[in-house]
Amino acid sequence: MISATTSKPPLTVHLCAPRGFCAGVDRAIQIVELALKKFGQPVYVRHEIVHNKYVVDGLKAKGAVFVEELGEIPADHADRPVIFSAHGVPKSVPADAQARNMFFLDATCPLVSKVHKEAEIHFRREREIVLIGHAGHPEVIGTMGQLPEGTVSLIETEADARAFQPKTDQPLAFITQTTLSVDDTAGIVAVLQERFPQIVAPHKEDICYATTNRQEAVKEVAPRVDAMIVVGAPNSSNSQRLREVGERSGCRVSHLIQRASEIDWAAFEGISTLGLTAGASAPETLVEEIIAAFGERYDVTVEIVRTAEETIAFNLPRELRELRDAAE
Ligand code: SF4
């Protein structure tokens, strides 16, 4: 007689640290939550406050209404607060809000605002500006929109950098999107610096600390595991980059998923080690959900692999600071 066995195969989950929420995302979500508390429902949010459906759905349930453009806000709600997302907005957006007499709160991450300021400084100093980033991403649209149309040239790849022809004889300067691949960007910058040795670089990296730290942790974990999972949304730039870093660091199976229900179990068959991380806009509860899903099929041991400590926190807008202080 063959006896059925209920024992599960062992699986060690190498859990990257840091992972998940960064200070900019945390601040943006707090801004929406505190605005709802202070001003009541509805509070409008222009674009997904951060690129994560779970977060957005949670805020919708509390009374936030998401729109892509200010024109979608009904005329009889023009007095309701509107919040701009963490990715930043072109200058035309606050100008439009002012013209419509709207009260707005800006949840742009301060590290994105820093890049906006750099762009303005270069412009004032009459430098021609190159932005390294991904076409169509809201952060890129916001950064390019700090200056008159046609002022900033976008470069996405090393091939773009090789083909780039300055439009003017002004000195060149480059800035970058905050959530790029550190390694890809270094390659693009190397091409630009070789072709234009005088090009002015950012004083301090534009790729933010959170992006850099999460990629470093994946580089540490990916070579030692059978498969990697990045928890995050397909439209989240930093999450996509984490998946790529996992693959390039030698991990054959590197998947980006939003929820446990998306796990392609066939791809994870026979593994004994799993690397796990989360993009900067993915909440920890979704990481726990993935671990629990593996726990149903495997005897899971979790090992934390910490490559950096993060202590950064950003101030809230003045209008909401008191409310947060009172809650603490
Ligand atoms: S990923 Fe970086 S730039 Fe984007 S919100 Fe987080 S800290 Fe700010």
Automatic annotation (TrEMBL):
The active site is at residue 139. Gene3D superfamilies: 3.40.50.11270, 4-hydroxy-3-methylbut-2-enyl diphosphate reductase, catalytic domain. (2E)-4-hydroxy-3-methylbut-2-enyl diphosphate binds at residues 51, 87, 137, 178, 236-238, 281. InterPro entries: LytB/IspH. It catalyses: dimethylallyl diphosphate + 2 oxidized [2Fe-2S]-[ferredoxin] + H2O = (2E)-4-hydroxy-3-methylbut-2-enyl diphosphate + 2 reduced [2Fe-2S]-[ferredoxin] + 2 H(+); isopentenyl diphosphate + 2 oxidized [2Fe-2S]-[ferredoxin] + H2O = (2E)-4-hydroxy-3-methylbut-2-enyl diphosphate + 2 reduced [2Fe-2S]-[ferredoxin] + 2 H(+). It is an enzyme of class 1 (oxidoreductase). GO terms for molecular function: 4 iron, 4 sulfur cluster binding; 4-hydroxy-3-methylbut-2-enyl diphosphate reductase activity; metal ion binding. Isopentenyl diphosphate binds at residues 51, 87, 137, 236-238, 281. Its cofactor is [4Fe-4S] cluster. It comes from the Bacteria. [4Fe-4S] cluster binds at residues 22, 109, 208. Coiled coil: none annotated. Keywords: 4Fe-4S, Iron, Iron-sulfur, Isoprene biosynthesis, Metal-binding, Oxidoreductase. The keyword Ribonucleoprotein does not apply. Pathway: Isoprenoid biosynthesis; isopentenyl diphosphate biosynthesis via DXP pathway; isopentenyl diphosphate from 1-deoxy-D-xylulose 5-phosphate: step 6/6; Isoprenoid biosynthesis; dimethylallyl diphosphate biosynthesis; dimethylallyl diphosphate from (2E)-4-hydroxy-3-methylbutenyl diphosphate: step 1/1. Dimethylallyl diphosphate binds at residues 51, 87, 137, 236-238, 281. One of its GO terms (biological process) is isopentenyl diphosphate biosynthetic process, methylerythritol 4-phosphate pathway. Binds 1 [4Fe-4S] cluster per subunit. Its EC number is 1.17.7.4. Belongs to the IspH family. Catalyzes the conversion of 1-hydroxy-2-methyl-2-(E)-butenyl 4-diphosphate (HMBPP) into a mixture of isopentenyl diphosphate (IPP) and dimethylallyl diphosphate (DMAPP). Acts in the terminal step of the DOXP/MEP pathway for isoprenoid precursor biosynthesis. NCBIfam families: ispH_lytB (TIGR00216), PRK01045.1-2 (NF002188), PRK01045.1-4 (NF002190). This is 4-hydroxy-3-methylbut-2-enyl diphosphate reductase. It comes from Roseibium limicola.
